[in-house]
Automatic annotation (TrEMBL):
Essential subunit of the Sec protein translocation channel SecYEG. Clamps together the 2 halves of SecY. May contact the channel plug during translocation. GO terms for cellular component: plasma membrane. The lineage of its organism: Bacteria, Candidatus Sumerlaeota, Candidatus Sumerlaeia, Candidatus Sumerlaeales, Candidatus Sumerlaeaceae. InterPro entries: SecE_bac, SecE_sf, Translocase_SecE/Sec61-g. The gene is secE. The chain crosses the membrane at residues 33-54. This is Protein translocase subunit SecE. It comes from Sumerlaea chitinivorans. GO terms for biological process: intracellular protein transmembrane transport; protein secretion; protein targeting; protein transport by the Sec complex. The keyword Nucleotide-binding does not apply. GO terms for molecular function: protein transmembrane transporter activity. PROSITE patterns: SECE_SEC61G.
Length: 70
């Protein structure tokens, strides 16, 4: 089927199929989008702070261990 088509025809068919699939997509409402974005940003901030705190604690422990000559 597609093997017999010219490259231009295959590209056109592909783009038509993409467009048809995009019509089937259920897009989020603005409120859902803002809610999901807020969750992602909040989690990213919490993880950043958590990793920073953990890094500081481990850095302090390494300095203590090195100062004892272990």
């Amino acid at each position: 089927m597609l093997e017999n088509e010219k490259p231009e025809g295959r590209v056109r068919t592909f783009l038509e199929e993409v467009r048809a699939e995009l019509r089937k997509v259920t897009w989020p409402t603005r409120r859902e989008l803002y809610g999901a974005s807020a969750v992602v940003i909040t989690v990213a901030i919490l993880l950043t702070v958590g990793i920073g705190v953990l890094d500081s604690i481990l850095g302090f422990l390494m300095k203590v261990l090195i100062s004892f000559g272990v």
